[in-house]
Amino acid sequence: MKTFSTPTRGRSNFDNDSDYLNTIPDPRTPSPNPQRTSPAEDSQDPHPDLSNEVAMLSTKLINAINYQTNLDDSLQHSRHELEAARQRIAQLEQETQQHKSMISSGALVNKAEVDTLKQELAESQKQRDIAEKGRKEMEVELETLTSALFEEANTVSKKVPIHTLYLLTRIRWSPQRAETLKPSNVRTRN
After folding, report:
1. Same domain, yes or no, for 95 and 27?
2. pLDDT tens digit string along 71-87?
3. pTM of this prediction?
């Protein structure tokens, strides 16, 4: 039987640590299966399929180990993402709690409420402006009427002498009442 030797796999044969941990065989090294050169050697091997089966099982084992490594990496990545998500959730819950406390304390108000209050304020301002305009118009009208009344009173008082007023009141009211209203400078006839 032919023997062969494989180079030792020490750390000096690898460029970095990741090559040392790799489970895929280096294609530059000779394979662990002996190279058969002739059919006569095949007849010397009592179980020719056994070597092929060992090689196939070794390949499956290497693939399974690689798959497990990938799954472990995915698991670690998923755990890291889960932890980051939990921290983000905790942060958002804290912000939500702060937001709710600010709303309940009155520091924040809903936009809909603010819009409603703005509309009510605008409507109130319009009504106030209308009322203010009406008040000013009434004041002007009152001043006009007051001045017209005083002018008319002055005109009437100039036209009608006081003794005529006295006579009108005497006819209209009783004699006792007329005496109390009698001006001191008016002469009466008896």
Report:
1. yes
2. 999 999 999 999 999 99
3. 0.37
